Amino acid sequence: MKVVIVGGVAAGASAAARLRRLDEFAEITLIEKGPAISYANCGLPYHVGGVIPDRDNLLVMSAEGFRKRFNVDVRTSCEATAIDRAAKTVTVRNADGSAEALPYDRLLLATGATPIRIPVPGLPDDRVFTLNSLTDMDRLIAAVRGAKAALVIGGGAIGVETAENLAHRGLTVTLVEKAPNILPAMLDPEMATWAEDALRETGVDLRTKRTVASWADGVATLDDGATVPADLVVMALGVRPNSALAQAAGLDLGPKGHIKVDNFLHTSDPNIFAAGDVAEVDGFAVALAGPANLQGRAFAKGIVEVDEDSDLTLPYDPGLACGIVKVGGLTAAGTGVPEAWLKIRGKTYTAIYAHPMSHAGYYPGATSIHVKVLIDETGAILGAQAVGTEGVDKLIDVINASACDISGCSCLADLNLCYAPPYGSAKSPANMLGMIIENIDNALSSPITPAQIPEGAFLLDVREPAEVAGGTIPGAVNISLGDLRDRLGELPKDRPIVVFCKVGQRGYFAERILAQRGYNVFNLSGGYTTWLAYKKAGLL
Asked: From CA 60, how far away is CA 192, in angstroms rounded?
């Protein structure tokens, strides 16, 4: 079997390595346009910032090492220029300039994506940088050595990481994001408030709801007329799929130019497959290293000759995408889709919030994890977001695994997870979220967000008076949870009652007391902590 793989790094290199382990006799050719076939592109910002000091640490494997270990014909600085589907050949331009038609039985397109650049009046090309390859990184580092100020356009993960690392290098850094908040594909505005504070603490000047209007003589002018210093500009606006080769070959593309593939990674041609940033699997495209590696592995499993009962024949399951990013001293992570995505598409959902501790509160160093989970009418998880100093990665991974499991999110409440005081709590944050969802499913709780508080509702703060002295929702009446049963006569039965505490647990206890006595009661999900986040994000 002759297999040609166009593109290395995550999907292509993973596919070649896995295929060789499954088939010692396949003829595998790996074509890579750049000089390196396998490197840790997620580590690029951290080498720019000096956090990863040795550039060689980013090189996963050299082309020569890959050839020897996997017996693969590796061709770097080699570009695929055309596909002849009828003849089943790929025309390539080799490093020496010669052209060659490579025959294939199976072809994998793992051509990746290219950073998006936008025109800024007055900004010369030699002052514009992206960060998607080793070449990009080397060019940016060379420019940083003679710069004092940097402007980063785009507040996604790459933009945030690059801004923080440039600040770590001692530059004056401004980050401009058009959306209302940073990390908009991962976090909703109220959840981003904690991450934005952490980014500012690194020294980054954050400007949201802003765009760059022009640049001149080392100064950028924003659309509100403000000016910021910018010796260099890093564009971190996302990526476009490198699908020109596939388009020229007549393969079906999605609305944003990704190559459309099914769960077996087949394109519209049965002998051509696609994986990684260039691919759209059943309508979803995710430009992340994790899915790219898994897709490359899935391609290899799908084309080998195996028994029909082997699990190697199973399709690739994209599940819910996961993302995580370090922001100063905090970690922000998410899985699935944010609320904004659901709103745009008119989906029915419920948002719940919790603010559990990262580990047992009685063990030193425990901190809050701020969590938001979005569920549909069946209780299935549509998305989850978390921000905190520790435990965020574990929590989102557990939620993702639960959401992808056939038993669904209901198993969250029953998971037996690792526990010792320095690492977690006997009732983990994942367990707590599962219990909240279980209560909703069983009609034992009616949570609402701050934006959903009904007009004319009676606001009931069930915290202790000393807590209320530090602030409460305007117009709220304070009756502590311990006194609630003795003061029921002070509560109206002809108005909806919204109960709240600091983070939601006492509010739920109060909700159960009142619901069983016939009151029309709702619990403010995440309590006063969530209300403050909404207010800070400008959502109230």
From this structure: 33
The per-residue pLDDT for 108 is 98
Q: Out of 78, 322, 409, 501, which one is annotated catalytic?
A: 501
Asked if residue 99 lies in contact with residue 206, where contact means CB atoms within 8 angstroms, the answer is no
The one-character DSSP state at 486 is G
Based on the residue annotation, tell me whether 501 is a catalytic residue of this protein. yes
Domain 2-41+51-113+240-313 and domain 322-441 have a common topology: yes
- Of 384, 423, 380, the C-alpha closest to 404 is 380
- Tokens encoding 161: 């990481």
| CA separation, residue 239 to residues 42, 113, 121, 192, 286 (Å) | 14, 6, 21, 22, 10
> Is the CB of residue 175 less than 8 Å from the CB of residue 160?
yes
Q: Under CATH, domain 2-41+51-113+240-313 is a member of which superfamily?
A: FAD/NAD(P)-binding domain (3.50.50.60)
Question: Quick one: pLDDT at residue 212?
Answer: 98
Q: Which of 375, 505, 499 is nearest to 440 (CA)?
A: 375
Of 3.40.190.10, 3.90.830.10, 3.40.50.300, 3.50.50.60, which CATH number belongs to 125-237? Answer: 3.50.50.60
Number of neighbours of residue 271 by Cβ within 10 angstroms: 13
**CB 278 within 8 Å of CB 286:** no
**Which residues in the chain show pLDDT less than 70?**
305-314, 404-411
Q: Is domain 447-536 in CATH 3.30.70.3270, yes or no? A: no
Helix (H, G, I), strand (E, B) or coil at 90: strand
DSSP 229-298: E-SEEEE---EEE--HHHHHTT--B-TTSPEEE-TT-B-SSTTEEE-GGGEEETTB----HHHHHHHHHH
Alpha-carbon gap, residue 234 to 130, rounded angstroms = 6
pLDDT reported for residue 2: 97
Give CA–CA dist 165/533, Å, rounded: 27
Residue 407 has a pLDDT of 47
Question: What secondary structure does DSSP assign to 44-61, as a single string?
Answer: HHHHHTTSS--GGGGEEE
pLDDT for the residue numbered 402: 83
**pLDDT per position as a tens digit, 455-485:** 999 999 999 999 999 999 999 999 999 999 9
- Backbone dihedral angles phi then psi of residue 5, each to the nearest 5 degrees: -120, 120
How far is 271 from 90, CA to CA, in rounded Å? Answer: 12
- Select the CATH number that applies to the domain covering 322-441 from these four: 3.40.50.1820, 3.30.70.1290, 3.50.50.60, 3.40.190.10: 3.50.50.60
Contact 230, 148 (CB under 8 A): no
Nearest-angstrom CA–CA distance, 244 and 257: 9
Query: Could you tell me where the beta strands, DSSP code E, fall in 88-202?
Result: 89-93, 99-103, 106-109, 113-115, 128-129, 149-153, 172-177
How many Å apart are CA 262 and CA 200, to the nearest integer?
A: 42
Q: How far apart are the first and last CA of the chain?
A: 62
